[in-house]
Amino acid sequence: MATIPQFLTRHQAPAGTQAPAERLDDRQSERDPFELRALPFEDVYFRPKKMDNSRLIREADPRAGGACWTVIGAACLMLAFLGGVLAPSVANTVAGYKLESLRVEAQKLADERRTLELQEARLLSPERLDRLAQGRHLVSPSASQVVHLDNTGESKVAMVRR
Amino acid sequence: MIERRLIWLAGIVLVWGAAIFSKLVALQVVHHQEYVKKARARQEEVVRLRAQRGAILDRTGHPLAMSVPTESVSVDPIKVPSLQVDSDLLAHELHLDPAEVFQRIRAAYDSHRGFLWVKRGITPQEAGDVRGLKYDWIHVDDGSERHYPNNMLAAHVLGGVDFEEKGNGGIEKALDGELHGTPGSADILTDVHHRGIFELVSTQARAGLSVILTIDEQLQFVAEREIAASVKQHEAASGSVVVMNPYNGEILALASYPPFDPNQPPENENDVAARSNHAVSVPFEPGSCFKVITLSAALETTKLRPDSPINCHGGVLTGLPGKRVIHDSHGGLGIIPMAMVLAHSSNVGAIEVGRTVGREKMYEYMRRFGFGDRTGIPLPGESKGRVRPLAKWGSTSLESVSMGQEVSVTTLQLARAVSVVANGGLLVKPRLIVKLGDRTPPVEPPVRAIKPETAITMRQMMEGVVLVGTGRSTRLDGYTSGGKTGTAQIFDFATRHYTHTYNGSFMGFAPVTNPAVVVVVTVNGTHGMEGFGASAAGPVFKAVIAEALRILDVPKDLPDNPPANTQIAQNQKDQSLDDVSIADLGSGQPNILEDSDDDEPAAPRTQAFVGPTAPPAPAPVAGTVPNFKGMTLRAVLREAEAKGLPVQPDGSGVARIQNPPPGAVLHQGERIRVQFTR
User: Which of B105, B206, B281, B347 has the fewest Cβ atoms nearer than 10 Å?
Assistant: First the structure.
């Protein structure tokens, strides 16, 4: 059966063989019933042939293991290299997600805080406090009910504290 | 043959590779920018970073105005698939009237408008519900809304903002540039679900500056409460109160009635009129309050002194050009000390003093006290009042001005003027801002208006108004005080006559020796005797200044009144007073050009103590005031101690001036003030 290597060297006649042209003529005269139809402008004929490779023992290639490990190592190195190249970008993206979500949360908390400050201001408004005080019968102290504890008493000049 | 095929194969592979490479070059080099742009258009969003409008705080740090973030819903009417169905759906989510929403969207659709606000200031729940619909024709926009948590408190000072948060009055308008802030922008890289991956701030947002005002929230509330009560009680048209620190010009309260709520936009003309700041923008004729300026000018430019005799001509002044006649509301005043002219608010006496001063000096001192000029307060629409140029004064202008006519002033200008007396003679600039952001605005140095000794003398004379004059009802418990009442008839420009409605005023300070606070109250459009300054404005002054002294923690300089556990019965009947300033307004209508004075027709309430352990009624008279003039401090104190009289000395050297004057009757609780100079 013709194989590819043989196809490449088929033009080189082995030693002691007939000339290719003569061989060709001989082949054509003996038509094999298993011979497939020739492709146009081709002088390559493919013949299926059953081959018994049961007795074929594949020899262990001592260098194959090393070659495999070399390839695996190279692939791992390549992967590690790629990972090293891509990892910062991925980490950047993940960190970006985190940062954005934290930023949104911070903004939301700041907004909530302002809303709460507004509520607090409303609850502490003088009008509301006055209304509550009146409801509990509380009044502002009159001047006679205010005692200045650190008043020197005999001071002739009323100093302004504030 | 084989080589030829190989060559062909190699050639094909080469061409194929070259095509791929050239495509790569075309994509990544030639069209690089174009594809980057497309990628950015899909992946990047430009987000507007909102700038928070600065808050406005009172001097204690309580917020008076602040912005909170809010979300609003807008739609693109052109993209709405089904107007009726989608309007109902949106109205349901936003708790609006479906019919109204449909009409609005329909109208916008018919007008080919691509944008329509549906609802502003939605709740977070509503925002979440609307976002959950995920319709591309609905947008939820971030924004900001201004809130005034104290509603009407200090509304005229704060002003308001429009729907774009741009100031349209008060401090909001005056400092809009500083409060506004500058929005920024950021580019956000998003994924396929529009979640942000990376943010690049291209322009940093700059929040607006916060403003700390000089206003005290509690004092402002009291001032607004009291002026509202007085205006309603006297059925007046408007009113205003200014509380000021006389030394640094800080305005502790500035109230104007009628008020308005800056949280609500104006709905009608009345609302717009209510936004006028009567303390700053509406000038009026001050009436007898202006006599303080007349007497100050007299002390500085003439030889008149508090005990100089002034002829009040029995309360009637004739012989004026144009046959004008000036009356004192309380007739019968003859020759009285100048201090009593102020205490009893004699128009005739003030005119005599003004004539002694003269036109030029009178005008000069009017300008020295700041009248005719704006105070420079950072509020829009401030009026400078009206002071006629000297060249335009008429034949009776000096007389009119001496008693507070033919001049118009604002309440704030009066506060500044009385501060000159209170602080020792310096004209200060009223201030409203303590801090703008983190910087303190520079304080303008005061200008000397009158001499310190003149100011001290005026203080004592104004104390006389409160002790024995027309301002008796404003006497404070525990503190000495000085003031001046004023009642001016309102001029009707349509009929060119003075009407019988009044501007009742009271301006004063406390304590007398070292005034801590100045308060000026004006009630506009009062009627009858109860509408005079002492009756309409006096009680407001008393309540506000008492609260101010308490808040400022000013030490007392007088003994307290009897304890509150004794029942106090107030005598409502008229009682004759020890002084002669009894008004008798029943003797006919005052002259149309007359400044109807602010005397007290009825005695103020006297207090009788009634209770289970009522102490005996205090003796009304403590003694007669001796003459300390020319005596040293030691001698004065020795004599006062021997006679059991309370004395309050001021200064050092030899006694020059005393109040009450020698020979006067000293009432219980009063002190003799003696001014010593070298």
Answer: B206
